[in-house]
Design a protein that fits this description.
62% of the residues lie in helices and 6% in strands. The chain is mainly alpha-helical and 400 residues long. The protein has a five-stranded mixed beta sheet. The chain starts with 15 loop residues before the first helix and ends in a 7-residue tail after the last helix.
């Protein structure tokens, strides 16, 4: 015998007379392997949907021929065989199947082949050393084939995931365009197998947020490469969707917009992004996720801070002649008085001062604001301005 195995590596050349014996067995052995695979591995598991891999006969014949070449030392490269095994793995991935059926076929094949080798060895009285070499060669070879198929499978799964993510990004961008859903969105969604929902909830994520895409539900659209990452969750944001988001976001921070008709998805995202900005500024508590529906008043009052500044100057301009301390005391009193609907005792309780102090301050405010405090519309505007002012005062010091 010439050559030995080194661990699980490839064997050295097998004696020519043994190769001749094995070669004579190949046609019938191929038939036996094919028959046993068809019997042992269910057809639907072997094929899935549309069959794109080469026929099982061609596959068996090619890998057997490559095995003979390998044990004879006739060649060190088997590009065609390697690509065939990778394609078997890729086909399983593309058809949405696991590798279980393919690995089962490999196991059946090696069992049948080894039974034949053992039978031939007994009939031909082959030396035990040759049998050991063939056993190592055969099982090492099948490991090599299975490894190649796994490579192809993982490659296809990765490519499929990237392609699907790209399709989802395009669908999400189309859904955010004015007038969605439109014919183009419906057509693209049908092609991608994504059911177009009647309603959607948009979720805003911080820039650079880590998101475990595999933890997202299959119908959730994601654009994680955007400067402002975001998700589209079909339908309402219920308890199950919340848990999904918690699982997908290790850092937890996110803001969930309102559930709206799909055509208004851009509004939901705009509100979610505004809520996220207020969370990052320290105005809203980090709810992980923060729900817009719980902060509608805050979102409305702080929706346009530049305009709010203009309104504040006009409504509170009468206080500009006071010192900063006086102005702070008077706005605090006015805000509490408005919330207490003009009740001096309730206002005093909120401020923790004597009711007479409230009455004194309100007399001064009445003189300052003239008829504004008697007009319901003016009181409403003052209340809104003061509430927004208090919200802005709760920002983290570093954000002010």
């Amino acid at each position: 015998m010439t050559g030995t195995l080194a661990g699980r590596g490839r064997p050295g050349p097998v004696p020519p007379q043994v190769i001749a014996i094995l070669s004579a067995e190949l046609p019938s052995l191929a038939e036996e392997i094919i028959s046993e695979v068809r019997r042992s591995v269910p057809e639907d598991a072997r094929q899935g949907g549309k069959v794109r891999q080469p026929t099982i006969r061609a596959s068996v014949e090619q890998v057997m021929a490559a095995f003979v070449d390998q044990v004879t030392g006739a060649g060190n490269t088997h590009e065609h065989r390697d690509e065939l095994c990778r394609e078997l793995g890729r086909s399983a991935a593309y058809e949405g199947r696991s590798l279980d059926a393919l690995q089962a076929a490999y196991r059946v094949g090696v069992q049948v082949a080894w039974r034949r080798v053992a039978d031939v060895a007994q009939r031909r009285r082959l030396p035990s050393g040759v049998m050991t070499q063939l056993a190592d060669a055969l099982f090492s070879y099948i490991d090599e084939l299975a490894s190649l198929s796994v490579q192809g499978y993982l490659e296809a799964r990765s490519r499929s995931a990237d392609e699907l993510a790209g399709v989802h990004r395009r669908l999400l961008r189309m859904a955010l365009r004015p007038g969605a859903p439109g014919g183009a969105l419906a057509e693209a969604a049908e092609t991608a197998g994504w059911p177009v929902p009647d309603e959607a909830t948009l979720v805003a994520l911080p820039a650079g947020a880590r998101c475990v895409r595999a933890a997202l539900d299959e119908d959730v659209l994601a654009d994680l490469g955007d400067a402002e990452p975001h998700l589209l969750v079909p339908g309402t944001f219920d308890t199950a969707r919340r848990q999904m988001l918690v699982n997908a976001l290790p850092e937890r921070r996110s803001a969930v917009g309102l559930t709206v008709p799909l055509a208004e998805a851009a509004h939901s995202l705009r509100w979610a992004r505004r809520a996220l900005a207020l969370v990052e500024a320290g105005v809203l508590e980090d709810g992980g996720p923060t729900l817009c529906e719980r902060h509608l008043l805050e979102l409305w009052l702080l929706s346009d801070e530049a305009l709010l500044d203009q309104l504040s100057r006009r409504q509170l301009g009468a206080l500009t002649g006071m010192s900063r301390t006086q102005r702070s005391r008077m706005t605090e009193t006015l805000g509490a008085w408005l919330e207490a609907q003009g009740n001096a005792v309730e206002t005093a309780r909120r401020l923790r001062v004597h009711p007479q102090t409230v009455r004194y301050r309100m007399r001064r405010l009445g003189e300052t604001f003239d008829e504004q405090l008697a007009d319901p519309a003016s009181r409403f505007v003052l209340d809104a301005v003061l509430r927004a002012h208090r919200l802005r005062q709760v920002r983290r010091p570093s954000m002010r």
